[in-house]
Write a structure and sequence with these properties.
Elements: H1 13-32, H2 39-43, H3 48-70, H4 81-94, H5 99-133, H6 137-161, H7 166-169, H8 178-184, H9 188-202, H10 206-211, E1 214-215, E2 221-222, H11 226-255, H12 265-276
Antiparallel strand pairs: 1-2
């Protein structure tokens, strides 16, 4: 992908769309040649299940983006960038975590996140609602007890890894924020940039709602303007490609010989990256948006 901060236009979204579809095809070929991960691997702390899970989700998210763009709904696609962004930061960080600590973290965080969802459901629908689904009171009480114990275990692992404490952050989660993780792997500026750009797509934002339209003759606002749709399509494809390629590189590096590229895939991926990067890096905002 290009390192240039300037956009070289005009952007032909159809060319980017074709390159993006080609990238999905190459990545799926890579995953197709891998043996399916097993529960035993996960329990033993093998990183392959996590790598494959992230790559599959990013490929599916990328496919969703290209499908939206092809359907003239590319302005909705940036919402899919946030998971890919977080996965890249976390995979890059976890590759630096010692094997034994990774094994403990993988098991503990997976359990804690699943239990948190269960407890949240119980808090919302109540014991009677949980019972109607087949959950016993004893099961729920044990889940609450286990959740507290597992969080303490995560806290202990975090202390060994130098994680900030909840007292330092003022938060409630014993797991550090993605902002902290991004800074640990030298990606703090990328975090700030992408989170500023994507937050408005996944949260309520008055600014983003009123930024979408084009001002037409007579001062009317057109919320269906093609220009804004094409820009957001370009933004989503560019950054989804970047995260997919960089996450794949981290997975390949961290897996040793377990993950490999199909024959000729490296040359194909380089060609696709050149095509995707031909217009430079899309900006979050342009001067014409600030003209009164």
């Amino acid at each position: 992908m290009s390192d240039s901060g300037k956009t070289r236009g005009p952007v032909d979204v159809s060319l980017l769309l074709k390159a993006g579809q080609d990238l999905v095809e190459v990545m799926r070929e890579m995953l197709a040649q891998l043996p399916p991960p097993t529960i035993e691997q996960a329990v033993k702390g093998n990183r392959s299940p996590l790598y494959q899970a992230c790559l599959v989700r990013q490929i599916e998210g990328y496919h969703a983006i290209t499908t939206l763009v092809a359907s003239n709904l590319g302005h909705m696609a940036p919402a899919f960038l946030r998971p890919a962004c977080e996965e890249f930061f976390w995979i890059k960080y976890l590759n630096k975590v010692p094997a034994e600590a990774f094994k403990d973290l993988f098991i503990a965080i997976t359990a804690a996140e699943n239990l948190r969802g269960l407890i949240a459901q119980q808090m919302y629908i109540g014991k009677r609602g949980m019972k109607s689904l087949g959950f016993s009171t004893q099961f729920i009480n044990k889940a609450i007890s286990d959740y507290s114990a597992i969080n303490e275990k995560i806290r202990g692992i975090g202390e060994r890894l130098g994680w900030p404490t909840t007292a330092q952050t003022g938060g409630q989660s014993v797991v550090p924020t993605t902002h902290w993780v991004a800074n640990q792997v030298g990606e703090g500026k990328l975090y700030d940039y992408l989170y500023s750009a994507t937050s408005r797509h996944v949260h309520f934002s008055m600014g983003e709602l009123l930024r979408r339209p084009e001002t037409m003759d007579g001062g009317t606002l057109d919320f269906t303007a093609e220009k804004k749709r094409d820009f957001r399509s370009y933004f989503a494809i560019h950054w989804a490609s970047t995260f997919l390629l960089r996450t794949a590189a981290e997975c390949l590096e961290g897996s040793g010989d377990e993950l490999t590229l199909p024959e000729g895939a490296k040359a194909r991926m380089f060609d696709i990256a050149q095509r995707l990067g031909q217009y430079g890096i899309p900006a979050v905002t342009y001067p014409n948006e600030w003209r009164g």
